[in-house]
Amino acid sequence: MHGPADAFVYDAAQYWEGALALLNGGDVTGAGVLEMRGALSPLVYLLPALVTTALGPWAAAWSVLAWNALLAVVLLVVLIPRIAEQITPGRRTARVWVSALLGGIVLSGFARFPLLDVWSVTIALAGLYALLVGRRWFTLAAGGLALAVAVNLRPSYLVPVMIAAIVLLIARPRHVVWAAPGAAFGASAQALFNITVFGQLSFSPVATPLLLRVQAAQATYGVRYDTVVSGEQHPQQWYCDPAYAGLLLDDHVPTGPLDVVMSAVSHLPQSLWFLSEKASSSLFWTFGTPYEPAPGAGLGAMTIAVVAVATFGVVALIWRLIINWSIRATRLHALALLGFWFGALGTLVFATPETRFALPLVLVGLIGLLVAPPAAAWGDGSRRSAIVALAAAVALSGCLLLIGESGLDHPVPPGPLADADSCAELTAPSGR
């Protein structure tokens, strides 16, 4: 849909350079910025890097595009329909087509770049699937390993994975016990790397505490962050809420995620609107997502599609959970997915969100669409509840679109986000 990338920039460039350095014997830690990224991140694009090394630099963009396209096949044609099948059996062919077409559209922008977002969420969903359907010890251990790898590649998935694991621990404790060795083995790679390279015992990148402090300070008033790829503008584009920032002027600067949560609690009910802005605006994708060609693209076809997939899907998943509560498999799978979804939402609203942070919400929403009832089934006793769920999804989508527009009304001048005082000075909408 987009063709190959013209160049790999910013985060994508660091992931790519790390893979090349690992393959060619360079400084992997420096090239891949592994003091703040997972130690396993250079491995993801090792095969495209090998192809590029063999054929020349011209092959980089094409090999990455092909590699990510293969990932989309596994995720959209194999994994997501199989997860949906566990919740409500049947309609396999229709599910594959819906997943492939809708998923292909919303993920198309990611395919060009060597980023880890789609890889991380795919591995996390694969790990959950293994724990949900696995019966043999090695399948469950592989599921635990997959979850640990997903968290290593994208540490923001720690909370979603933990919530889903708690659901499984309550429902299937033996499965989680068998998964634990795999998870421990996956986490040990980061610890071994930190000891070897930095002389520190830690199961997360050594710069994680510093990164958390920086993000916590911005998370209390920053609505969204975009990376703009236009050469005519600074790549950092922030949006904030001046009215809410004005409430924070006398507060101490947060130093960690817990401080961000406590700040929101101390400013209830105003913080509810602010957190809603963060969640809604993170779903305002464009055809350029995960990067943006320019700030303030406004409401477009891609935004409407992504918001619809996320909202209609999660409402459908909740609806299916309610009407099929007595079916143990449906209940367990739906609760685990919803735990992952709510964990991702919490991580998003209490951090400094980019559009990429909303990827788990969109893909779980896609699974929800696949378990929604076909129109032919609405003649049974569930028809009334299905109509109520549909009306709720329409209303929720409309609210998210309106709130998201509000959240993007105040772009900060291009460049780093200064402080709450500078945000509070942006008193008038930009007139996008």
Kindly estimate the percentage of residues that lie in beta strands according to DSSP. under 5%
Order of the strands making up the biggest sheet: 1-2
**Average pLDDT number:** 88
Shape: globular
Poorly predicted parts: 428-432
Task: Give the terminus-to-terminus CA distance.
Answer: 27 Å
CA gyration radius, whole angstroms? 21 Å
Let me know the largest β-sheet.
Answer: 2 strands, antiparallel
**Quaternary assembly:** single chain
* Secondary-structure element pattern, one letter each: HHHHHHHHHHHEEHHHHHHHH
Structural class based on helices, strands and sheet pairing? mainly alpha
- Percent helix among the residues? 55-70%
Q: How many alpha or pi helices?
A: 19
The count of β-strands is 2
Explain what you see.
The longest helix is centred in the N-terminal third of the chain and has 28 residues, at 60-87. Strands 1-2 form a two-stranded antiparallel ribbon. It is globular. Mean pLDDT is 88; it is low at 428-432. Helix 5 packs across helix 6 (92-106) and helix 7 packs parallel to helix 9 (158-171). Strand 1 and strand 2 form a beta hairpin. It has 19 helices and two strands. With 432 residues, it is an all-alpha fold.
